[in-house]
Amino acid sequence: MAFFRNLLKPSYSSSFSCSNSYSVLNKSKTPFSVSSQAPQIYSSFSLFSTQVTQYAGLHPTKPVEKPRVVVLGSGWAGCRLIKDIDTKMYDVVCISPRNHMVFTPLLASTCVGTLEFRSVAEPIGRIQPAISKEPGSYYFLANCTSVDTDNHTVHCETVTDGSDSLEPWKFKVAYDKLVVASGAQASTFGIRGVQEHAIFLREVHHAQEIRRKLLLNLMLSDVPGVSEDEKKRLLHCVVVGGGPTGVEFSGELSDFIKNDVRQRYAHVKDYIHVTLIEANEILSSFDDRLRHYAMRQLTKSGVRLVRGIVKDVQPEKLILSDGSEVPYGLLVWSTGVGPSPFVRNLELPKSPGGRIGIDDWLRVPSVQDVFAIGDCAGFLESTGKPVLPALAQVAERQGKYLASLLNRIGKAGGGHANNAKDVDLGDPFVYKHLGQMATIGRYKALVDLRQSKEAKGLSLKGFPSWFIWRSAYLTRVISWRNRFYVAINWLTTFVFGRDISRI
Amino acid sequence: MAFFRNLLKPSYSSSFSCSNSYSVLNKSKTPFSVSSQAPQIYSSFSLFSTQVTQYAGLHPTKPVEKPRVVVLGSGWAGCRLIKDIDTKMYDVVCISPRNHMVFTPLLASTCVGTLEFRSVAEPIGRIQPAISKEPGSYYFLANCTSVDTDNHTVHCETVTDGSDSLEPWKFKVAYDKLVVASGAQASTFGIRGVQEHAIFLREVHHAQEIRRKLLLNLMLSDVPGVSEDEKKRLLHCVVVGGGPTGVEFSGELSDFIKNDVRQRYAHVKDYIHVTLIEANEILSSFDDRLRHYAMRQLTKSGVRLVRGIVKDVQPEKLILSDGSEVPYGLLVWSTGVGPSPFVRNLELPKSPGGRIGIDDWLRVPSVQDVFAIGDCAGFLESTGKPVLPALAQVAERQGKYLASLLNRIGKAGGGHANNAKDVDLGDPFVYKHLGQMATIGRYKALVDLRQSKEAKGLSLKGFPSWFIWRSAYLTRVISWRNRFYVAINWLTTFVFGRDISRI
């Protein structure tokens, strides 16, 4: 079968090796195959294990085969690249612990049931059908543990949570071109207790956790035996971080309270409150008029805006730097992002701020055939360009640019490893800020279409911008299926109210 | 505030008692209030604790107040009763660890993504709006731990999974009428390993677990390092139990394989298989012709039918009584049901089979004001009637009957505790089997409209019955919102294929 051609073939008879692998799997839970091919791929295996273990994986491609682009990550940057790359020219291998892209601008809406989780998730296989069907293209549910740039190989480990019969195992993938798009992680600023007690808002499982906890607190606060103070604490929702994510979530929450809690949890509707804590200015990257509008609207809808710095987080309250205590039942942490441990451990030059350093063409210039895009990448100081903000539109634009650059390289015959040294790369990547949008509750949003904070330009607020916001989102990278579902979700929420099953 | 009128009021000043309760909550995680009222309610407290702890709860109702019906459970029986009871006459308190009803006939479809989980769940608050809004009606997220029939009180404990800041606590609810509708649990027949390694198919979280595991196995089987045997094992889905649930799930799974796996997991589509294991005959309660049709269709769609008895379940294989081993990657257990530990521990007379014994009017005849319906209840031997099968339509019919009986009692002035002794109860409950339906994959179903196995009557198969099946389900107790969503889900599955995000 053609699609096995790159998998390491066992050198024993197939029945023996199968049972050998199977029995080894049973004993040690680490499947491996013995290979007689391409010994040079294992020169680095001693870096990973003192055992004489050889990992399975994908071979380097032969000159007659399609070159292979390996993409680490399944976010805005990686998925845009996967979508736009020419799969007649390249095989694509996507390696990520998450098999879908999350449409992050709509994530806050899923926490309270305005939208369903599935409506904001787009499976990789639908973004790039070749991954589902083509013999040489794959999606691997795994994390990359390290990159061997000399040997053009990434080392990976599978994700097996949810399986009680499988331990994770390691494998390797040889690449012709590597694109690191592994994203960033939420910053906790070293504050104790954040990881244990707060919930971030970057993934669908965060949104699910928030939703379940909110509904649990609403139900428990109605059970006999809860004191007044406990009721108020349980139903106090605190959001830390006044950027678009925190503001959007506060807006959704206050809308949920005004409409659905009033009807469906009438017994406790007077106890539930929302507080938004920000160290500086909320929505600091937006136009001043829009910011003041947002603050007025949030305050009008019942959100308490507090300027403060969180110093300590405990199971039932947080402590601000001025010593005041804030009891909470639900704590959502939506401050900025920073480099992940994977990025920090990569032995590649870094940009200011610790991201993977890239040049004007989004390459990692110190090695061959490695690129980086999205939140994990930043211009090297030597380029003279500032590190771009960690925004979805930056990531998406970089993914689009890099796909066309790789297609260009492939057309010029530079697709295979170490072949792109003399290819004309064309124009460097230039980011033009198209403005930004944020929603602040039902029917209200901000649309800031200026190219920078200082520039003049169109900025809208209120219902017209809410309408623009909704339309713009619906036209982005989401599939028709999800566009349909998002529209249906919005319609049913409008007609029937949000769903409150604690699932 | 009127809705506090039945809650125990602390006898101290409110600030002292609040802080007292709060500080006690902090220390011992057990909130309680000191009460100066109704000491007789606590005569039984010593049964529950050697501490001098008094639980909070709902008082017995006063003669001028509405009598209170307490319903344990949120399944077919309990929800139908809650829906039909006259809330102008009664306050309704529903106590259940689950805040929604599960539309079980459609549950199998959610495992593979034909339908979304939320489309088959109906929140209690929407089934009976009085629970959300009326001061004296409640839904409590809790389990009933015991029933004190002499004092007309149920003792409960909250469910706090998902909260890291709250321990469960106890409370009591006094009832005028008690309806036990707590359902049954899946039978494991004492077979070792079932609880640990198999997944049942009765709740939404079971369906979620099945779906995640199925997608995990599909993705992992494509990663380098998996031997042929491992791939086959991982992708071998075994269903134990040939009743409607098992057959429907096998049918859905084989449809998923033929359509979605073929397109979206093309690399491994030849490895995935389904085996249905049944000890006797599949669909034994259906007409013979329909049974043979079902077996032919299942076999044609690739399901392997095996007659066997499972003797032992291990993490990666199960052992049949004839000694043969069946390796599996996903094991779904959908055999019969039996009495739950709660029912077994109730000190009330039992029916044959161990359910709560009821008379012709669904009362527990040995005590006052206690009724039982659904899977947890069975006719006492003295009635001469056989225990009814554990079917949704039996439960629903009993819920409907009992609601009208309670309404009748209430109208005759017998609503309050111990007041119903002389009320004329009218006709006893009679169950008339309206036939049954089962689906066996895309566009095929069985509709057996005979009243019993021996009777003659209409029995249909194939596409016409599939259409009837779909229409009939859409007209049942589901709300308009979920009818809409179910129809939308079916439409999008037909147009776009199933969703495969591993969420």
From TrEMBL, chains A, B:
This protein's UniProt keywords: FAD, Flavoprotein, Membrane, Mitochondrion, Mitochondrion inner membrane, NAD, NADP, Oxidoreductase, Peroxisome, Transit peptide
Question: A Pfam family matched by this chain, by name?
Answer: Pyr_redox_2
EC assignment: 1.6.5.9
The main enzyme category here is oxidoreductase
- Any GO MF annotation of the entry: NADH dehydrogenase (quinone) (non-electrogenic) activity
Q: Where is the FAD/NAD(P)-binding domain?
A: 68-399
GO cellular component, as recorded: mitochondrial inner membrane; peroxisome
Family designation = Belongs to the NADH dehydrogenase family.
Q: Under what name is this protein listed?
A: NADH:ubiquinone reductase (non-electrogenic)
Provide the species name: Carnegiea gigantea
Q: What is the lineage of its organism?
A: Eukaryota, Viridiplantae, Streptophyta, Embryophyta, Tracheophyta
